[in-house]
Amino acid sequence: MQTETLAKPAAPAPLPLSPAAMIATAFSHIREGDTEFRSDGLRDFFLYRDLGVAEATNGLVIAQLVKANLPPEEGTGWHRHEANFHIVIMLKGWARFMYETEETLVQAGDCVHQRPGIVHYLFDYSPDMEYLEIVSPADFTSIDMPGPCAVPPPTPWA
Ligand SMILES: [Fe+2]
């Protein structure tokens, strides 16, 4: 009579590193004042402050502060991004987005994960709005898209 012995389970193999994880990255510490808010970013009604992460990660990830510069008029228009990862963390004030057909108020303390390809429209924001945006890759692109629905008007600044 034969008996089968159960093999002792092998220790799990270490997870293989993804190509992204094998990109050499550097330590980085950007202090207040090391980088300035610039007006030559994606939207002319916002100012952008780079936080040094794109350089430190060889373009794997960008972290930037975005703040209101001009009152909302047309907003961003409907668009999507070519990105693998994209979060928005509201630091001050608020912004109103359309995420597909869902009107979404994002207030200070909130975090939004914008899943890849989601069609959206930032159409309103407070004068003090400031958010931290973290996106991979750093050179993500924005593509104008047809909108699925109407967008509410922005709130006039006092
Ligand atoms: Fe966007």
Distance between the termini: 90 Å
The tally of domains stands at: 1
Note the total helix count: 1
CATH architecture: Sandwich
The total strand number stands at 10
- CATH third-level topology: Jelly Rolls
What characteristic shape results from the CA principal axes? Answer: globular
Helix share of residues? Answer: under 10%
Radius of gyration: 21 Å
CATH class: Mainly Beta
Runs with pLDDT <50, length 5+?
none
* Main sheet record: 5 strands, antiparallel
Kindly estimate the percentage of residues that lie in beta strands according to DSSP: 35-45%
Strand order of the largest sheet: 1-2-9-4-7
Describe this structure in words.
With 158 residues, the chain is mainly β. The protein has a single domain, classed as Jelly Rolls (Sandwich). It is 3% helix and 35% strand. The strands form 3 sheets. A 5-stranded antiparallel β-sheet has the order 1-2-9-4-7. It has a 3-stranded antiparallel β-sheet with strand order 6-5-8, with no helix packed on it. The longest helix has 4 residues. The radius of gyration is 21 Å and the shape is globular. The model has no long low-confidence stretch (mean pLDDT 93). The site of fe (ii) ion (FE2) has 4 residues, from strand 3.
